[in-house]
Specification:
By secondary structure, the chain is α+β, with helices and mostly antiparallel strands. Helices cover about 65% and strands about 10% of the residues.
């Protein structure tokens, strides 16, 4: 490649950082709806804290507090409240809080099961209404985790209930009293739990297959990046969010310099290898939460959520230096021209992409291997 590419790559090595590749599924999930999910979880935590306190006081008023509720309901209320506040202060701890809240719920369910089989079942010959909610533990496992992990968790919970039932159920008393209803309640509880877990596994498998097929429709098979169809859907979603709630984001249009010459000189197999390597290098220099899309040919579109034009230009410059400083076997260093444009109120998808495209072509017209912001293009035209 041009000597300028080699020069641009000098000193890049010390600036590289490796935040770790983000899988495509994680990129799909990293959408503007993430704050809504966080708000939902916070609301559920506060609601759970309030429900725990209300249940505790209602039982206290009727003098029907059992030892499990006496200890765990106030503890759950305090912990759920603390988790909700923590999530408001540290939104990056969403996954940790979700799992901690779920673990606390499982602990309560197991403790309640022990109390039920030990005391409630022999007394009233069935479980109380509190156990009607137990299958939710299986459902939440599938909401929080992927199918394989969720199945392991659900199976572990079911086996845990089986062990606790075998250990704490007073089978001798139930047998002596010929308590058929109690044995039937136990049988129904364990069979229904197994059926719930298996049905959820089957439905999640169907849903995962559907999601995989849908993902393939939005995936570029060569680079394993989201394709233009996904990019347009993502930008439409972001633009809708900006119109409703305000905010800022920017896009970078990136075009590899002289890529046609690589195909002509070395063949398309080498060109494909260069494209795949460049896709990896681009991701390496992006802030976490950004998305890079194979826009078409040797063009890539980078979406920078919550970053304006100045910050976007700084990211584009890092990507440019990273590409210029990465040699390709048998080819050399491949440079890129990048154009940066920020969202403006009232923008359409075509208008935003067109500004980034114009800035990119200005970079190419200036010799390539550079990043240009659209504001400088506009200033040059008006000047």
């Amino acid at each position: 490649m041009e000597a300028g590419c080699v020069a641009a790559g000098e000193g890049v090595k010390s600036q590289r950082r490796a935040p770790g590749r983000i899988t495509f599924l994680e990129r799909v999930r990293s959408t503007p709806l993430e704050p809504l999910r966080r708000t939902l979880i916070v609301s559920v935590l506060f609601l759970g804290a309030a429900a725990s306190l209300v249940a505790f006081f209602l039982q206290a008023i009727t003098h029907a507090v059992n030892p499990v509720d006496l200890f765990l309901l106030p503890l759950m209320a305090a912990l759920y409240l603390a988790m909700g506040v923590a999530l408001l202060l540290r939104s990056d701890k969403l996954h940790l809080v979700e799992n901690a809240a779920y673990a606390l719920l499982v602990l309560y369910g197991m403790a309640m099961l022990v109390y039920q089989v030990r005391h409630t079942l022999p007394a009233i010959h069935t479980f109380s209404e509190a156990m009607f909610w137990f299958p939710l533990l299986y459902l939440v496992a599938y909401l929080l985790h992927r199918r394989a992990m969720a199945f392991r968790i659900a199976t572990g919970i079911w086996l845990g209930t089986l062990v606790l039932g075998l250990v704490f159920t007073p089978f001798d008393r139930l047998w002596q009293s010929r308590d058929v209803n109690a044995f039937n309640a136990l049988f129904q509880f364990y069979v229904s739990g197994a059926v719930y877990a298996m049905l959820l596994f089957a439905f999640s498998r169907l849903e995962e297959s559907y999601a995989e097929n849908r993902m393939l429709a939005y995936l570029d098979h060569l680079t394993q990046l989201p394709n233009r169809r996904y990019g347009e859907a993502l930008l439409a979603q972001l633009l809708h969010q900006m119109r409703r709630f305000g905010g800022v984001f920017s896009v970078i249009m990136l075009d590899l310099d002289g890529f046609k010459k690589i195909n002509d000189r070395h063949g398309h197999d080498v060109g494909d290898r260069v494209l795949k390597r460049c896709a990896l290098v681009i991701q390496k220099y992006l802030p976490r939460g950004s998305r890079v899309i194979r826009w078409g040919g040797e063009e890539f579109l980078i979406v920078l959520d919550a970053l304006g034009e100045a910050a976007g230009l700084a990211v584009a410059e890092k990507v440019r230096r990273g590409l210029a400083g990465t040699p390709h076997e048998g080819v050399g260093r491949v440079c890129a021209s990048l154009g940066v444009a920020a969202y403006r109120p009232g923008d359409s998808l075509d208008e935003l992409v067109m500004r980034a495209d114009r800035a990119m072509y200005r970079a190419k017209a200036a010799g390539g291997n550079r990043a240009v912001a659209y504001s400088s293009v506009r200033a040059a035209v008006e000047g």
